[in-house]
Amino acid sequence: MRRRDFLLFGAAISSVLMIQPALASGESMVVYKDPSCGCCHEWANAMKNAGFSVVSKDVDDMDAVKKRFAVPADMQGCHTAILAGYFIEGHVPLEAITRLLVERPDIAGLAVPGMPSGSLGMGDNPGASYDVFAVGKDGARSVYQAVRPRS
Q1: CA geometry: angle 108, 52, 35, nearest 5 deg
Q2: C-alpha dihedral sign at 23, 24, 28, 29
Q3: 32: left (phi over 0), alpha (psi -120 to 50) or beta
Q4: Each residue of 11-47: pLDDT tens digit?
Q5: 3-state secondary structure of 25
């Protein structure tokens, strides 16, 4: 690799790393969670650490929250967050949320069904393997991002 290419590559990587906190800066997120759930607390803290302005709301009836925001039953996770008009359901990784804010697709939200081991808030394990789904306003689902073990 020539010196010029190396420097341009370094500048590009630096730009990408700086975009993530900049996107989160000033974005307000409301996280609805069960008051006794520790993994929800960890996920919300990760969002705060990424620069989001997070308001956590402890809720005893999470089913009512999921119904209110039209989260399909088979896409439901542990907690529900609202960000920039989207629902963020379950242990969605920061990278997927950052991508969502850049792309701003015409969908209802992102979802990680269940509580996958190793997902953000559930141990954040580099060996985790799960999918992040885009949920359309019509309820259609597609894989938005595949999370696979890092090598």
Answers
A1: 80
A2: positive
A3: beta
A4: 444 444 444 444 555 689 999 999 988 888 899 999 9
A5: coil
Angstrom distance (rounded) from CA 99 to CA 43: 17
Domain 3-147 CATH superfamily:
Glutaredoxin (3.40.30.10)
Question: How does 36-49 read in b/e, with b if 16+ C-beta sit within 10 Å?
Answer: ebebbbebbebbee
Yes or no: say if 137 and 106 are a contact pair by the CB < 8 Å rule: yes
Report the amino acid identity of residue 80.
Answer: T
Give the whole-angstrom CA distance, residue 23 versus residue 61: 31
What are the boundaries of each domain within the chain?
A: 3-147
Return the axis-axis angle of helices 38-49 and 94-103, rounded to nearest 10°. Answer: 50
Dihedral (C-alpha) 114, 116, 121, 124: value to the nearest 10 degrees?
A: -160
Enter the pTM of the model: 0.81
Question: For residue 73, which phi and psi values (nearest 5 degrees)?
Answer: -55, -40
CB 116 within 8 A of CB 140: no
